[in-house]
């Protein structure tokens, strides 16, 4: 046996979940409209590629920011030398202003309460390190972002206890679900240190309602625990009801003078709203000075480069640009979301009603061979290998009901999205057309399954070559 630490060899990283396995399969056979038209279309990646042209045109008009210059003078040496972990004041100022803008300026943020981190991944882990000991627990509403198993648990040793939400009320957080999760943690002898929500939700694409906030705030107040609100998708809200940040709720309920004020922490990042996950820019915002001081020291392990901070402080402080970007990006997301919802409906598939995010939460329960997670995996594999779409099964998001899938719509061209909708419709139609009779023998049923597989593969190929001809 190798002489390694347990963390290096244990599998609590979650790399073997179907969420990540789907990405690996996609890498082996990625769709390309000319080079690989029958390949797998990536619909399991919550990336926002819809507004790159806006960012690129700003960069073209502001060449100083990418060539280490300020007013024509080189600042290369200033940027190249070590920056301390407090971050560039100009960038922190620009980022809090942008966060205020995303909330309609109904709340403002103080840069001294902001800690910069290498993305929301690092922000969430750092907060958990600050708020909980190994073996203590955080409660998370299900379904949740699969990366949380890695980000919150793996290195911190903290446990996640699910708050089970279900389709009967559109996966809303209820008082009884919160109470049940708390009791479940107690049964497991786990001390609960807080609740973590994503608002808007990944994977649901919905915003947290005032009612849910009331339950959450009352709950953390009565139990004396923390609330982390991951607001990484705050700029993606494209429809009513609009986005309400936990920061606004605290103000509306006049909680500034209470202990709850210091127990609510916000996570943010530019990975989704600006579509810059490669830049690794995230932040923690907290009213607790001890948390801010500790997280600032910990941020040494995941700083944002000064070059990136310099570029983005110039971009975000261009108010005319950033305001226009927010509106235009939301308009484009709304259009894409509409294309996905209507494309799926055309194939007889419904989505949970949503108003935000880069994905839909899609109901495929009627396509399962039985109401089980085994049947969900069977359907997921068919969609991955035969239809050649990588979507994320609900089980990877810890959903308690089989048959739900997260499908992303903002990481591809409109043509690719249309093609994916044609493929899924062909799949559903072929499934309906070849459904075998109950009286069929097992071998007859196998024959039907084989012929379905063959005809679908031909469909995928035909659709793709048709697309290419139409393009020319
Ligand atoms: C809810 C949520 N939090 C955090 C992250 C990680 O984001 P980042 O790229 O900023 O680390 C993601 C990424 O998908 C996410 O969906």
UniProtKB/TrEMBL annotation:
Reaction(s) the record says it catalyses: S-adenosyl-L-methionine = 1-aminocyclopropane-1-carboxylate + S-methyl-5'-thioadenosine + H(+)
InterPro entries: Aminotransferase_I/II_large, Ethylene_sulfur-biosynth, NHTrfase_class1_PyrdxlP-BS, PyrdxlP-dep_Trfase, PyrdxlP-dep_Trfase_major, PyrdxlP-dep_Trfase_small
Cofactor: pyridoxal 5'-phosphate
Residue stretches making up the Aminotransferase class I/classII large domain: 41-423
E.C. code: 4.4.1.14
Top-rank taxon: Eukaryota
GO MF assignments: 1-aminocyclopropane-1-carboxylate synthase activity; pyridoxal phosphate binding; transaminase activity
GO biological process: amino acid metabolic process; ethylene biosynthetic process; fruit ripening
Family: Belongs to the class-I pyridoxal-phosphate-dependent aminotransferase family.
PANTHER family xrefs: 1-AMINOCYCLOPROPANE-1-CARBOXYLATE SYNTHASE 9, BIFUNCTIONAL ASPARTATE AMINOTRANSFERASE AND GLUTAMATE/ASPARTATE-PREPHENATE AMINOTRANSFERASE-RELATED
The protein's name: 1-aminocyclopropane-1-carboxylate synthase
């Amino acid at each position: 046996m190798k002489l390694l630490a347990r963390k290096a060899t244990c599998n609590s990283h979650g790399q073997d979940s179907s969420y990540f396995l789907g990405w690996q399969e996609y890498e082996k056979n990625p769709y390309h409209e000319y080079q690989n038209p029958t390949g797998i279309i990536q619909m399991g990646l919550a990336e926002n590629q819809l507004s790159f042209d806006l960012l690129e045109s700003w960069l073209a008009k502001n060449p100083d920011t990418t060539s280490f210059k300020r007013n024509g003078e080189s600042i290369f040496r200033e940027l190249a030398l070590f920056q301390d972990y407090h971050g560039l004041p100009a960038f922190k100022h620009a980022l809090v202003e942008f966060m205020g803008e995303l909330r309609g300026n109904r709340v403002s943020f103080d840069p001294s309460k902001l800690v910069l981190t290498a993305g929301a991944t690092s922000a969430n882990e750092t907060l958990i390190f600050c708020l909980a000991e190994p073996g203590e627990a955080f409660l998370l509403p299900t379904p949740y972002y699969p990366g949380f198993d890695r980000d919150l648990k793996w290195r911190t040793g903290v446990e996640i206890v699910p708050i089970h939400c279900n389709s009967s009320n559109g996966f809303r957080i209820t008082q009884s679900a919160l109470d049940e999760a708390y009791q479940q943690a107690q049964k497991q002898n786990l001390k609960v240190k807080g609740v973590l929500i994503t608002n808007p939700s990944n994977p649901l694409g919905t915003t947290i309602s005032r009612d849910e906030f009331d339950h959450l705030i009352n709950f953390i107040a009565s139990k004396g625990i923390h609330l982390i609100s991951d607001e990484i998708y705050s700029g993606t809200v494209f429809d009513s009801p609009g986005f309400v940040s936990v920061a606004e709720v605290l103000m509306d309920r006049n909680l500034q003078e209470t202990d709850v004020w210091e127990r609510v922490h916000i996570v943010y990042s530019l990975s989704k709203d600006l579509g810059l996950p490669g830049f690794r820019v995230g932040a923690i915002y907290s009213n607790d000075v001890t948390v801010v001081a500790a997280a600032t020291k910990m941020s040494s392990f995941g700083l944002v480069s000064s070059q990136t901070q310099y570029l983005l402080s110039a971009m975000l402080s261009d108010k005319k640009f950033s305001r226009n970007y927010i509106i235009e990006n939301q308009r484009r997301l709304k259009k894409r979301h509409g294309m996905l919802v209507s494309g799926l409906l055309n194939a007889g598939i419904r989505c949970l009603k949503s108003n935000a995010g880069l994905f839909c939460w899609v109901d495929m329960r009627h396509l399962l061979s039985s109401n089980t997670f085994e049947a969900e995996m069977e359907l997921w594999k068919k969609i991955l290998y035969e239809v050649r779409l990588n979507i994320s099964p609900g089980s990877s998001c810890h959903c308690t009901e089989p048959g739900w899938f997260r499908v992303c719509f903002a990481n591809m061209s409109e043509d690719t999205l249309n093609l994916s909708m044609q493929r899924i419709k062909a799949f559903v139609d072929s499934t309906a057309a070849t459904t075998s009779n109950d009286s069929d023998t097992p071998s007859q049923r196998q024959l039907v399954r084989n012929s379905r597989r063959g005809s679908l593969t031909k469909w995928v190929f035909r659709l793709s070559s048709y697309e290419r001809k139409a393009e020319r």
